[in-house]
Design a protein that fits this description.
By secondary structure, the chain is of the alpha/beta class. Helices cover 33% and strands 26% of the residues. A hairpin with a 2-residue loop joins strand 2 (30-31) and strand 3 (34-35). Helix 8 packs across helix 9.
């Protein structure tokens, strides 16, 4: 089956970016001249996704508004003959892409957020993208490659990247199967934030997933953890008992825009990719002692 639907959990309060996220959804904080979530949605659209499901909170209507049409603004830009800006505004969401919003009534974790979108997903395979993680693929869109791998093997996919050993306790970590002394893509174990001396590898989950709809069965069965949250990693560990789950190793860079330093790095990185801004930024950086 083709993968055409994507879930973006955006209901969190973004406490790592306080005080800015007190009144501005963290997903709407700009990286250069676009909200962080725009980069993630464009990544999904480029990978062939045509239905974006925002799992959101009543205080985050700014996200829904951003992806909606603004006839008054468009008329103003047209009147002032600012045609380039007008086209950018109109192309935020292509006509063939639908954006749907569902509410997460309580902050009960990532697994619960995914479960909130179950009725919209139905029996279709789907993607989950964490909206505060920006992925800049070094070659072909990595999400598109994950979807191709899913469609070839009909196995759920998780994007992973190698992290420093001293940082494994900050991530979900996977252990891969070895075949004839070589690591395969097949995941044998998923561990959420293991102690450094107990981590099965340094392969950390990035925040991009492709799932079969069977994950919902295990999300329903997964009990809340000590903090009262339903963890997606716990449901994936149970799904492993029924279906193969594969790892897709990132080919590129990730930026955690949910953290202050990650957000700053993202701004620098994406500014340097802009022909109209790169030289000015480099000139400025040269002045810093």
């Amino acid at each position: 089956m083709k993968v055409k639907k994507a879930i973006l959990p955006v209901a969190g309060f973004g406490t790592r970016l306080l005080p800015a996220s007190k009144s501005i959804p963290k997903e709407m904080i700009t990286v250069v001249d676009r909200p962080a979530i725009d980069y993630v949605v464009q990544e999904a659209v480029e990978a062939g996704i045509d239905t974006i499901i925002l799992v959101t909170h009543p205080a985050k209507q700014a996200i829904e508004n951003y992806f909606d049409r603004n006839a008054e603004l468009e008329a103003l830009l047209e009147k002032k003959k600012k045609n380039d800006l007008l086209q950018q505004i109109k192309q935020i969401i292509p006509e063939h892409v639908t954006v749907v919003a569902v509410r997460q009534p309580e902050p009960l974790g990532l697994g619960h957020a995914v479960l909130c979108a179950e009725k919209v997903i139905g029996d279709d395979p789907f993607v989950v993208l964490l909206p505060d993680v920006l992925v800049d693929s070094s070659d072909k869109n990595n999400l598109a490659q994950m979807i191709e791998q899913f469609e070839q093997y009909q196995a759920s996919q998780i994007m992973v990247e190698n992290v420093a050993a001293e940082r494994v306790d900050q991530y979900g970590i996977v252990r891969l199967e070895e075949v004839d002394g070589q690591q395969s893509n097949n995941i044998l174990e998923l561990v959420e934030k293991p102690p450094i001396n107990e981590a099965p590898s340094t392969l950390a989950v990035v925040g991009r997933y492709v799932f079969t709809p069977q994950i919902f069965k295990y999300l329903h069965l997964t009990p809340a953890d000590r903090s009262g949250e339903i963890q997606l990693t716990d449901a994936m560990a149970q799904l492993l008992g029924e279906q193969k789950i594969q790892a897709f190793t990132l080919k590129g860079e990730t930026y955690d825009c949910g953290s202050k330093i990650g957000y700053i790095k993202a701004i620098v990185h994406y500014t340097l990719k802009r022909d109209d801004l790169k030289a000015q930024l480099m000139d400025f950086l040269d002045t810093i002692k």
